[in-house]
Amino acid sequence: MSDLEKEKDQSNVEITSTFSKNNLDPHAVLSHVVSIDGRVVDVTGDVDEAMKYAFDAEEVELTDEQARKLLFKIDIYLLPLICLLYSIQFMDKVSSSSASVMGLRTYYHMHGTQYSWVGSSFYLGYLILEIPMSMILQRFPVAKTIGIIVVIWGAILCLHAAASNYPGLITLRTLLGIFESGVTPAMVIITGQWYKAEEQFLRTAIWFACNGLGTILGSSIAYGLAIRMNS
């Protein structure tokens, strides 16, 4: 048998069984398949569990009263956490402005455009990892990923106190921007997961408006520190 005939013989695969959505039981779950050579391949994992939950919930119908109660519970438990997190991350962004009033430029001997780069370096890091971070959030569990991000950015923020020179400060501001770049995409994903399309606009507007709350809280804390600098 020539090589060409062998190649043709190997490429001829007969379909042994076919199925479609129309001829499957509505609650059927694919558990295993049989390969061409007779091997049984198990199909198990989280996807099957998620499919079972989806089938169970497919026939659930909520009354208007039940839907309102469910929405209220989600708003009470989830929305405040999103708003608090978004406020805190905005406080980090503008903290250098408050610090400049209390001697940041003098301490690091800044001149020319060096202070401008303190703010720009943050958004440079933010820009670098914005797209990769969005892809990471789609690939890994959002809750765990955002939890890790918050811990890391909190540690970086604490390390600002240990920065003894200007290059060290710029490095920390860049790293802070890198790890905060996933916050807004994560909030958008969480809002999309927990709210209907018609409910998302108002909730997104609420947590996005917490930028202003972060400014108020950050400025209040900075004022309290400023008036007690010499005490």
UniProtKB/TrEMBL annotation:
Domain (Major facilitator superfamily (MFS) profile) ranges: 78-231
Annotated membrane topology: Multi-pass membrane protein
GO CC, alphabetical: membrane
Gene3D superfamilies: MFS general substrate transporter like domains
Localization of this protein: Membrane
InterPro entries: MFS, MFS_dom, MFS_trans_sf
Segments traversing the membrane: 108-129, 141-163, 175-194, 206-226
Keyword annotations from UniProtKB, A to Z: Membrane, Transmembrane, Transmembrane helix, Transport
Superkingdom per UniProt: Eukaryota
MF terms in GO: transmembrane transporter activity
Keyword Transmembrane: yes
Signal peptide: none
Protein name as it appears in the record: Allantoate permease
Source organism: Pichia kudriavzevii
